[in-house]
Amino acid sequence: MFVATVTWEFKIVPTNPTLRFACVSDLEEYRELQHDPSSTEVWYFEPITKLDAASEEAFELLRFTVDGQARPARRTTRAGTQLYSVNLGAETIAAKRAVTVSYTYRVLVQQHGHLLYLDISRPTKGLKVQFAYGNCGIRYVNVLDYIASSHTPRVAHLPASDPSPSIVVGFDGWVFPKAGVAFVWVLEREMEATKAIGRRAHEARC
């Protein structure tokens, strides 16, 4: 498994006093929560051995701030599901002004799944996504954007040979829900295995 640490930061005029985060192991529940306007972030975690979505190892909300001020999160669990809720405070809603919301969570991602997909859950103007993958055995990463627009997003690469390999995706226009960005990788060990197969095939022909 990879341990992915994800940080989102955006400005919003909040209308809902509570933001909710969920990690679930049931696909039907996952799809329902994706269409629930009260859900801020929803992750699906496929159960593996003794791990399911209710485990803190699978998903954990690490930090949540409003204008730089930390807000506590309340965590609840039930079979195959965990939920976090954060109260923004009545004064934040009453002010009816834009605030900067930032939150960080940690999630387990299967290495052999070769995919990390980041869903855009709210209308967003101006998007920047950075994917850093240093020292984790990834040889190469492709990026796929699911942004409906006549303009192509900007993509900048720092390759795996760089001390800090990463990909940055930027888009200046509006991005709407159901859009997202996917990062698809090839592992170093897979490349080595392919080379070994190629060498054996060459030796057999010789």
Summarize the structure.
This protein has 206 residues and is α+β, with helices and mostly antiparallel strands.
How helix-rich are the residues, as a percent range? 10-25%
Beta-strand content estimate: over 45%
**Regions with pLDDT < 50 over 5+ consecutive residues?**
none
Main sheet attributes: strand count, strand direction, barrel closure: 4 strands, antiparallel
Whole-number total of structural domains: 2
Structural commentary:
By secondary structure, this protein is an alpha+beta fold. It folds into 2 domains: 1-109, no CATH class; 112-206, no CATH class. Helix content is 16%, strand content 50%. It contains 3 helices and 14 strands. It has helices at 27-34, 90-95, 188-205, and strands spanning 2-12, 18-24, 39-44, 59-66, 69-70, 73-78, 81-87, 99-109, 115-119, 124-132, 138-146, 154-158, 166-175, 180-187. The strands form 4 sheets. A 4-stranded antiparallel β-sheet has the order 1-8-4-5, with no helix packed on it. Strands 3-2-7-6 form a 4-stranded mixed β-sheet, covered by helices on one side. The longest helix is centred in the C-terminal third of the chain and has 18 residues, at 188-205. The mean pLDDT is 90.
Please write out the topology:
Elements: E1 2-12, E2 18-24, H1 27-34, E3 39-44, E4 59-66, E5 69-70, E6 73-78, E7 81-87, H2 90-95, E8 99-109, E9 115-119, E10 124-132, E11 138-146, E12 154-158, E13 166-175, E14 180-187, H3 188-205
Parallel strand pairs: 2-3
Antiparallel strand pairs: 1-8, 2-7, 4-5, 4-8, 6-7, 9-14, 10-13, 11-14, 12-13
